[in-house]
């Protein structure tokens, strides 16, 4: 009987019950203990009236309760909805009402935001409080578990059933709930394990936020599928991360590029023993070559992945042998996923030509929650249209050229910001870089660079940039304007918010 991803834990309890599953601060759970807590939460939710297909919203940090929620919902056919804890109360309210969840699990550190949420009109019926100082009307998480049965709920769950709804970052409008099935998550895990050396003996550090598909499904869920250990960290502090790698003998690590950059910027980096790391993965945005070189020089094989919330997320991976040789590429498709690059007429483009990247496979989402038109637009004839512009090289490696919406057209020429940004990251005094377009009466659009400096006491001018970029990029791609900022605006997952930069530019 297929029981979806909840059956992973059942299997591990039979084969390796005493193997370490989760570590969060001083708490350590074996697979047997983890599964029992999941069962107790699942049965508690059933007692509260949660049924198959119901949404359970959660405002949680990277804690054991987050993963208990994922698997408890999976075992009873409910849909777990992790919410970005960095959102405003109005943004959280939108997701709560859009998902139509009646039950809300939240961490005590989110109490100020949740107190505001209570004053708003929502469909929430029950608040489940994790930690200290609950509201008087809250249900207490640990009390619910203590009073619930540890027995398996025993529901028959199919791989086509939805278990997770992750809201896209919403950088271009209201976020959409991507519905991911048990099969999406399981095939993503199979793809990942097939293309990387991850094993059940591995321990990963879950430092990227679990409300994001990268944090949840690059290492965390695949490693649970494999039977390895997840070391959970509820906030990103580069020094703490380095210390955790040493203390817990972490073997694998996923971070977004901004996090990798923060890690390598720790002044006494080499004082920490991170020799246990066997390989590392970067994703979520293009990773500067300087970051890859830094870690490869220290003997840490570096992989670069590409994926989306809607693809659960694995679309392609650049392996350790090619991260330097094919820098700028996101690698090749995995075993169970197919990628094409097509023109506006859905015809495959030739090698070196730019088109839209489309994805087909068992990891492609079911659709967007309550958005049939958007789903129909995104998934056509079984193919998910990513909105990313890409090209193949002669060896079949994929290069993401840019998002459709970020492409600049100047004088009839297409300019792809990523290409210029990767060159700018090699400038000795540029810490962060983003390229945007701005209206130009003569050319339609012109190119602008927005950068943060390593040393703000040193001046940087457009002429300096032009001199540095000369011979590295075509003349028409040269930035005509330069803005220096303290830091680039980013969302919770580290992606640069170019919409904000463009808005600020239009105001300026």
TrEMBL record:
Residues 419-495 form the AMP-binding enzyme C-terminal domain. The keyword Coiled coil does not apply. Residues 11-369 form the AMP-dependent synthetase/ligase domain. Transmembrane segments: none annotated. The keyword Ligase applies. Keywords: Ligase. It comes from the Bacteria. One of its GO terms (molecular function) is acid-thiol ligase activity. Belongs to the ATP-dependent AMP-binding enzyme family. This is Long-chain fatty acid--CoA ligase. It comes from Neobacillus rhizophilus.
């Amino acid at each position: 009987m297929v029981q979806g991803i909840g059956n992973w834990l059942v299997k591990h309890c039979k084969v390796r019950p005493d193997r370490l599953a989760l570590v969060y601060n001083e708490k350590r759970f074996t697979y047997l203990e983890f599964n029992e807590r999941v069962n107790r939460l699942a049965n508690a939710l059933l007692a509260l009236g949660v049924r198959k297909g119901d949404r359970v919203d959660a405002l949680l940090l990277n804690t054991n309760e987050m993963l208990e929620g994922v698997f408890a919902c999976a075992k009873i056919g409910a849909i777990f909805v992790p919410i970005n804890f960095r959102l405003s109360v109005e943004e959280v309210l939108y997701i709560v009402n859009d998902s139509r969840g009646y039950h809300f699990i939240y961490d005590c550190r989110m109490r100020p935001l949740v107190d505001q949420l209570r004053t708003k009109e929502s469909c929430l019926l029950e608040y489940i409080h994790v930690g200290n100082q609950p509201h008087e009307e809250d249900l207490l998480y640990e009390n619910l578990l203590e009073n619930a049965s540890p027995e398996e709920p025993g529901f028959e769950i199919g791989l086509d059933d939805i278990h997770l709804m992750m809201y896209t970052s919403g950088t271009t409008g209201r976020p959409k709930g991507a519905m991911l099935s048990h099969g999406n998550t399981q095939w993503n895990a199979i793809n990942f394990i097939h293309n990387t050396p991850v094993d059940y003996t591995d321990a990963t550090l879950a430092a990227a936020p679990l409300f994001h598909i990268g944090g949840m499904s690059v290492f965390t869920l695949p490693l649970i599928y494999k039977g390895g250990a997840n070391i959970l960290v509820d906030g990103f502090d580069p020094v703490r991360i380095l210390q955790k790698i040493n203390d817990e003998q972490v073997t694998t690590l996923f971070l977004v590029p901004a996090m990798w950059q923060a890690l390598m910027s720790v002044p006494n980096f080499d004082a920490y023993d991170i020799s246990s790391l066997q390989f590392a993965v970067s994703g979520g945005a293009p990773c500067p070559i300087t970051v890859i070189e830094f870690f490869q020089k220290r003997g840490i094989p570096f992989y670069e992945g590409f994926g989306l919330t809607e693809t659960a997320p694995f679309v392609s991976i650049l392996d350790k042998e090619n991260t330097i040789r094919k820098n700028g590429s996101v690698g090749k498709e995995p075993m169970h996923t197919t990628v094409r690059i097509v023109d506006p007429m859905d015809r495959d483009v030739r090698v070196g030509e730019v088109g839209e990247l489309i994805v087909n496979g068992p990891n492609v989402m079911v659709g967007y929650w309550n958005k049939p038109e958007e789903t129909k637009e995104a998934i056509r004839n079984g193919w998910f249209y990513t909105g990313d512009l890409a090209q193949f090289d002669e060896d079949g490696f994929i290069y993401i050229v840019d998002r459709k919406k970020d492409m600049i057209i100047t004088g009839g020429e297409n300019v792809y910001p990523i290409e210029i940004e990767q060159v700018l990251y090699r400038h000795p005094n540029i810490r962060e870089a983003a390229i945007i377009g701005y209206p130009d009466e003569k050319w339609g659009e012109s190119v602008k660079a927005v950068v943060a400096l390593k040393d703000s006491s040193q001046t940087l001018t457009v002429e300096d940039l032009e001199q540095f970029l000369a011979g590295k990029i075509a003349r028409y791609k040269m930035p005509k304007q330069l803005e220096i900022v303290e830091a680039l605006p980013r969302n919770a997952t580290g992606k640069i918010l170019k919409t904000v930069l463009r808005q600020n530019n239009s105001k300026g």
